[in-house]
Amino acid sequence: MKIICIGRNCAEHAKELKNEIPTEPVFFMKPDTALLKEEDFYLPDFTKDLHHEIELVIKISKAGKHIEEQFAHKYYEEIGLGIDFTARDLQTKAKEKGLPWEKAKAFDNSAPIGKFIAKEKLQLENINFELKVNGQSKQIGNSKDLIFSFDKIISYVSKFITLKVGDLIYTGTPEGVGQVHIGDELEGFLEGESFLKLNVK
């Protein structure tokens, strides 16, 4: 099982980090050890600036490679909610030196995942999602604001990497990313329903 993450897929988020808006999908990988299904997340000691990034997540249901965009909808049946935790301080230092920044993104438990829902129950072009921290809304997103659609992402990634059943694609975070602290409670909502809850310890 692979975790594929799409970066800079919301224009306002790209702007808030002073990044260029991409002309094609930008993706990176996390290992399966990044996945976290528990309700407790332990703040790692190697970062002083860990950020939350709430994202819609596609679960691949059919293996494929070189998938044409018009057929991409056949390769996933469920959509869920996840968090792409980012050690922003480590990422910034690595970027400044022109180095890879996997350690800022791919560390253990950096990809909390919530429950999934059948895509037929959603309007794929208009999915509302939100992250609340300690009951306060911090990130509000909608699938219509993604620069690259689910189908475009699947088609593009499959040109380089064979997709397999169970692979997860984190599709990009909206603006409002911010630091998390010990004692925080993070709760993710999809169409107003709680899909993911974490306690930071």
Any descriptors?
single chain, 201 residues, mainly beta, 7-stranded mixed sheet, 5-stranded mixed sheet, 4 helices
What does this protein structure show overall?
With 201 residues, the chain is mainly beta. It has a single domain (3-200), classed as Alpha-Beta Complex (Fumarylacetoacetate hydrolase, domain 2), CATH 3.90.850. 13% of the residues lie in helices and 37% in strands. The strands form 3 sheets. It has a 7-stranded mixed sheet with strand order 2-1-12-6-7-9-3, covered by helices on one side. A 5-stranded mixed sheet has the order 4-15-14-10-11, with no helix packed on it. Strand 14 (185-190) and strand 15 (193-200) form a beta hairpin.
Give the CATH class. Answer: Alpha Beta
How many DSSP helices? 4
Q: Going across the biggest sheet, name each strand in turn.
A: 2-1-12-6-7-9-3
Query: Under the CATH scheme, which architecture would be assigned?
Result: Alpha-Beta Complex
For this structure, the quaternary state is single chain
Percent range for helical residues?
A: 10-25%
Q: Give me the CATH fold name.
A: Fumarylacetoacetate hydrolase, domain 2
Content of β-strand? 35-45%
Number of strands: 15
Can you lay out the helices and strands and say which pair or pack?
Blueprint: E1 3-7, H1 11-16, E2 26-30, E3 35-36, E4 40-41, E5 50-52, E6 54-60, E7 76-83, E8 86-87, H2 88-96, H3 102-105, E9 111-118, E10 128-133, E11 136-142, H4 150-157, E12 168-170, E13 178-179, E14 185-190, E15 193-200
Parallel strand pairs: 1-12, 3-9, 4-15
Antiparallel strand pairs: 1-2, 5-8, 5-13, 6-7, 6-12, 7-9, 10-11, 10-14, 14-15
